[in-house]
């Protein structure tokens, strides 16, 4: 490791990724669900991502929110160089990328920045040293507006406790391998598995080793090694208890507002009745939230903090939620009333949610209008704005739209970003997904390689026919002209599905 990295893995770049929980609309919804006033965005907003990596997430939000002013910071010069090139290729004019350390930012030696309504950190806080966490808190004290939101994700205790012996082994073993970090972590994993098979069961089980080796469809083996190196080989890596994070950020006058993993804000979905009763006796919020983790066992937290949290009345909260819209992000045929929640499986009332799915399949609708659907009024029962917003967003079936437009018109910034992102994935080797921005909701969606090929083809002016788009995809994939019928059929089947299912959703979201 070089000195400038401060023990952080720097010899290989971090993987690009999109994390929807960092979105301004999603964070606004998290606050409202918990009865906290979000920042006003009437005159636009200022947004900063600390530790932005390649800038994939923040660039998408900049494209989808042209009224916002975005800044992104990373200490790694290669990350910033890539992020600037990508932003230039997408024609983004409302974002700036800065190479600076947390210490430089805290001491005012970095770039000249405004005060922010939103500051987000994903995959940073439990991977850096206590000194750097202190610098982050000092930066927030200086640069987060009163009422501003902070999103911070981190590996959490005690849920991470079972993995700590393996992490320590991988970190210490890496010092014996004088090669790049991704090679080091792979060698360490080989040694750990050898010990496991020799009887060191404290290191895990077969399923865990299979997952760590990337035996999933999410990442190829090269990407998995890079991910593991950044996850496990940082010198200051430390999973944290919520109470410690709350105390550290309390130095910047931050108060915990809720979770960006929305289902975790609903006690009935996270805790058993006995657990809720036991925790009700804990009067200190940060301790109650920490002790909750002993019941839930979550190894990863997505916390939302506010600098000067302002409680709002139930009536005011409900009025704000009713004025918010929801936009469906899946095909109507894929909508489901059985959902996965922290406690396991839950079932939504079909008499309420089937009519909501039908309405949203036509386009974005205000939550207040959804509550007044004739089918729902006839069905009777109770259905709150808090439930509709949380259940649809938490189950990844819809996204919140704080300022719903009368008509959906694709934003020029969204179209430019998506053309660049789709082209990059369509012509890349190894990557399996990217994310495209939406003009509705200021957010975005993950897309597969075949979906990117569809978007790329339509952007290039290819006729919207299956044969033409399959031919375009095969050219992009460098498939031979005499490819066997099975290969051609596989591409055609996948492309046909994307045309029938993804394309209509994109159009309703103003993505294309």
Automatic annotation (TrEMBL):
Domain Methyltransferase regulatory: 226-307
Domain named Methyltransferase type: residues: 49-149
GO molecular function: methyltransferase activity
Keywords for this protein: Methyltransferase, Transferase
Pfam families in the record: Methyltransf_12, MethyTransf_Reg
Biological processes, Gene Ontology terms: methylation
Stretch forming the signal peptide: none
Keyword Methyltransferase recorded: yes
SUPFAM superfamilies assigned: S-adenosyl-L-methionine-dependent methyltransferases (SSF53335)
Name of the molecule in the record: Methyltransferase domain-containing protein
Species the sequence originates in: Azospirillum humicireducens
